[in-house]
Automatic annotation (TrEMBL):
Pfam families the UniProt entry points to: Folate_rec (PF03024), GSDH (PF07995), SRCR (PF00530)
Biased composition (Low complexity): 621-641
Subcellular location: Secreted
Signal sequence coordinates: 1-23
Name of the protein in its database record: HHIP like 1
All copies of domain SRCR, residue ranges: 667-770
Organism annotation: Junco hyemalis (Dark-eyed junco)
Gene3D superfamilies documented for this protein: SRCR-like domain (3.10.250.10), TolB, C-terminal domain (2.120.10.30)
PROSITE patterns: SRCR_1, SRCR_2
Keywords: Disulfide bond, Glycoprotein, Secreted, Signal
Family: Belongs to the HHIP family.
Length: 777
């Protein structure tokens, strides 16, 4: 029995052994550390990374001179080095820990926390410097008792005590680099910027020095936000009566984009992209508006001029991006016309250069007050081709959703002008492209790296441009293009292309290997443990990722919602933050130009909360820029608009991190092996897996909560006894669910506990929801 007892003793010892501290660099102002703009003269140890800029370093040097003046020659020779080290701990990347500033129940220390052996040494040789450093009466009262004195100066978390902290490999390894978990997932944090939005599809700035930002809702309203985060009560634009959309989840029609003319500050012109119905015919419309002559925060609604209209043969694949390039030309990104597989004509719209659908268009809207509304740039690639529309800049695209121009490296301008796009796939792959003039991006011959139409693929040109990255549908089914980060506040992110997936809720990134030209993939996770434990930061988001955005200073944002309906006010805007390293104080400060405000200001009130939990390990995918294999959606996977014959305008898969409770809390309805339209067996997503719910206690209040999560205004019936089939391939995750009907998600209701149940799949619960009485809130 000696062997098992010894093994048990080792296990107990391991369980009881203190775990190493989680690295959490933090300054005394509770902000992340940074790299000073230039070296430090006094606290040189922290000249590469820490919490002091040169002005603070100079102040500490002056204090050192002041304190050392009171020391006799012998004490100065023996103790001045220790005095310098203690003063400079304010510059340590772990200053908040050293001075116990994280604990609000205790006052901030006047002397950093010291390790027992070092404190004892100082007490014997340099005790007098403590009285110079601190006027703390309790410390003075203990100065004749070494044990009590050093106990008073100790830290509860001994990993952070000085000077052992300096040699702690766990805390200093990769200090100042983007934090990654054990599986390589980059851990970032968020700041909530705006909320209560109805499917926020775009966020843009005017590039006029005011640092305002403008958020567009799918229903046709655009709101102006001031630099202090407040929203103006009067909409910047309201064309909701003209915009064609609906409350149905997944409807791709609506107000899709807005962009400001590069010379907006001088000409006041703004361009919008939206869906309309004209004589029972659906179209996409590109219009020009001018700023109101009496209000700089509102457009003149009577100034609309229709620049371009294109007939849409179907209700999906509407494209929806407008951008101005450095050339000051307007780029328009259209979808292939909808349905599935681009069935229009012999080769589809995307390969037909005489059609405007499935294209990147480029037109000149400058100086258009007289003459034609737009002109053709003389260097457009097909101006001399009589069989092509001269507006075409690039072709062979399926449904590019969110594109961006790279601002270029802040110092070298490397990469400036590259045009990145996410192109939504059909049945197997999503892709990211760099768009270049005159190039063919392969649809419908190719989808990602693979052949879609085998006949076209066999005969397609070898000059077709392949994606820089493609991923299979087991990772996500609707790419949302993003931006190359070129902001100031998070320097470690410079050059990282950050994008996402609407359906799976994944945040992802690509980094170019300059030596090979290949793009390396890293997934982005929300920071766990203490990574995001800074004031104002959160680590969770609604995961229907609709769009990405840059502000005027180049900082990165994304827009997402919990209910993908044009009338559901669940949209939130998040700013991306890297806490591993920030810019030095003052470097990123902006001075917005004054804004004359006539409308009432509505102060921003954040609603999202930080979640302190360590998620369980989950299966990882290791995609590359090579053609991925497999990835065909299996039965029961959520369909989405634009995904082939089986597509529905239903809800996309949600992977929402719960703000309360033990897991994510997303819900879906399944019926006969596929997604149900408003009725079906209930499945809930918790801690990385889908599961079913038992019908014990299941009633109409619980059904109402589920229907509201799915965007339906009311529940007709709570289904029991596996009315919509048994989910026998899944675990039963919830039982004894009791709701009042007012909860935001099912997990806010009382239940027996995740995975705890006394039922079988023949008792799987379901719901029947209704869209009647939908109100436009």
């Amino acid at each position: 029995m000696r062997g098992p007892r010894a093994a048990l003793a080792l296990l107990l010892a391991a369980a009881l052994a203190p775990r190493p501290a989680r690295p959490h660099p933090q300054c005394l102002d509770f902000k992340p550390p940074f790299r000073p703009p230039r070296g430090l003269a006094f606290c040189r140890r922290y000249g590469e990374f820490g919490c002091c800029d040169p002005s603070r370093d100079s102040a500490l040097l002056q204090r050192f001179y002041s304190l050392s003046a009171s020391l006799d020659e012998r004490t100065y020779a023996a103790c001045s080095g220790h005095l310098q080290e203690l003063l400079c701990q304010e510059c340590s990347p772990y200053a908040a820990h050293l001075y116990d500033a994280e604990d609000p129940s205790t006052p901030v220390r006047t002397i950093p926390g010291l390790c027992q052996d070092y404190c004892t040494q100082l007490w014997h040789s340099c005790r007098s410097i403590f009285r110079a450093l601190s006027a703390d009466p309790e410390l003075t009262a203990l100065e004749n008792n070494a044990a009590k004195f050093c106990r008073y100066l100790s830290l509860e978390d001994t990993d952070y005590c000085f000077p052992h902290l300096l040699a702690n490999q766990h805390l200093n390894q990769n200090l100042g680099l983007v934090t990654a978990d054990a599986e390589g997932c980059l851990q970032l944090c968020l700041t909530e910027v705006a909320n209560g939005l109805r499917n926020p599809v775009a966020m843009v700035h005017a590039n006029d020095g005011t640092h305002r930002f403008f958020i567009a809702e799918q229903v046709g309203l655009v709101w102006a936000y001031l630099p202090d985060g407040s929203r103006l009560e009067k909409p910047f634009l309201n064309i909701s009566e003209a915009v064609l959309t609906s409350p149905w989840e997944g409807d791709e029609r609506g107000f899709l984009c807005i962009v400001f003319h590069p010379k907006f500050k001088f000409n006041g012109k703004v361009y919008v992209y939206y869906s309309v119905e004209v004589n029972f015919e659906e179209r996409i419309r590109i219009s020009e508006f001018r700023i109101s002559p009496t209000d700089m925060n509102a457009l003149d609604h009577g100034s609309e001029r229709i620049i371009l209209e294109i007939e849409e043969p179907a209700s999906n694949h509407n494209g929806g991006e407008l951008l101005f390039g450095d050339d000051e030309y307007l780029y328009i990104f259209t979808g292939d016309g909808g349905m599935a597989g681009d069935p229009f004509g012999t080769f589809g719209n995307a390969q037909n250069k005489s059609a405007l659908l499935g294209k990147v268009l480029r037109i000149d809207v400058n100086n258009n007050d007289r003459g034609p509304l737009y002109r053709i740039p003389p260097d457009n690639p097909f101006v001399s081709d009589p069989a092509a529309r001269p507006e075409v800049y690039a072709y062979g695209v399926r449904n590019m959703w969110r594109c961006s121009f790279d601002r270029g490296d802040p110092h070298t301008k490397e990469g400036k002008g590259r045009l990145f796009c996410g192109d939504v796939g059909q049945n197997k792959y999503e892709e990211v492209d760099i768009v270049e003039k005159g190039k063919n991006y392969g649809w419908r011959a190719r989808e990602g790296f693979s052949c879609y139409d085998k006949k076209l693929c066999t005969n397609s040109s070898l000059d077709d441009v392949l994606p820089i990255y493609a991923y299979p549908h087991k990772m996500g089914k609707s790419v949302t293009g993003g931006y190359v980060y070129r902001g100031c506040e998070s320097p470690n992110l410079n050059g990282l292309y950050i994008f996402g997936d609407f359906m799976s809720g994944r945040l992802m990134s690509l980094k170019e290997d300059r030596a090979t030209g290949e793009w390396q993939y890293s997934e982005i996770c929300m920071g766990t443990g203490q990574t995001c434990m800074f004031p104002g930061l959160i680590n969770n988001y609604y995961q229907y990722i609709i769009s990405f955005a840059e502000d005027e200073a180049g900082e990165l944002y994304f827009l997402s919602t919990g209910v993908p309906s044009a009338t559901a006010p669940n949209g939130v805007v998040y700013k991306v933050v890297d806490t591993s390293r920030t810019a030095p104080p003052g470097k990123c400060q902006v001075e917005p130009s004054p804004v004359k405000v006539k409308s009432k200001r509505i102060p921003f009130v954040p609603k999202e909360k930080f979640i302190m939990k360590t998620p369980p390990p989950r299966p990882r995918l290791q995609p590359t820029t090579e053609a991925p294999w497999g990835g065909v959606p299996g039965p029961g996977r959520a369909p989405r608009p634009g995904k082939g014959p089986e597509e529905e305008k239903g809800q996309r898969r949600q992977k929402k991190k719960k703000k309360q409770g033990p897991g994510n809390g997303a819900v879906r309805l399944m019926r006969q092996g596929r997604r149900g339209r408003g009725r079906g067996r209930l499945e809930v997503f918790i801690d990385g897996e889908w599961g079913t719910v038992c019908d014990d206690g299941w009633g109409l209040p619980a059904a109402a909560v589920v229907c509201r999560q799915l965007g339906f205004p009311r529940a007709v019936r709570a289904a029991k006894k596996a009315e919509f089939g048994e989910g026998s391939s899944l675990r039963i995750l919830l039982d004894d669910v009791q709701c009042s009907g007012q909860e935001r998600t099912l997990l806010e209701c009382s239940h027996a506990g995740v995975g705890t149940h006394n039922c079988k799949h023949e008792e799987d619960a379901g719901v029947v929801c209704s869209r009647e009485e939908v109100t436009d809130r």
